[in-house]
Amino acid sequence: MNAPTKTAASHWPKWARRGPMEMVACVVIALGIFMMLQPFALVLFTHSFLTTLAGVVMFTIVSKFPQ
User: Fold this and answer.
1) C-alpha angle 34-35-37 in degrees, rounded to nearest 5
2) Residue 41 CB: number of other CB atoms within 10 A?
């Protein structure tokens, strides 16, 4: 029998794998959309586009991470 080989995913910490990081990116996107649609604070609306954009960029990068 051959010894099991380590995959690339086994070197990554559990918090940096695709599943948890995609969830964080989705939360950032949802936060940006909430900031854009709320009528209470202009400062939240001002930063909403950059927050949403950061979440989308993060999701795009994280989708390349190993499982």
Assistant:
1) 65
2) 10
Using one digit for the tens of pLDDT, what is the confidence trace for 40-51?
Answer: 999 999 999 999
Dihedral angle computed from the Cα positions of residues 48, 50, 52 and 58, in that order, rounded to the nearest 10 degrees: -150
What are the domain boundaries of the chain? Answer: 13-62
Q: What's this model's pTM, rounded to 2 decimal places? A: 0.80
The tens digit of pLDDT for each residue in 7-55 reads: 655 687 887 788 888 999 999 999 999 999 999 999 999 999 999 999 9
Distance, in Å, from the CA atom of 7 to the CA atom of 49, rounded to the nearest integer, reads: 38
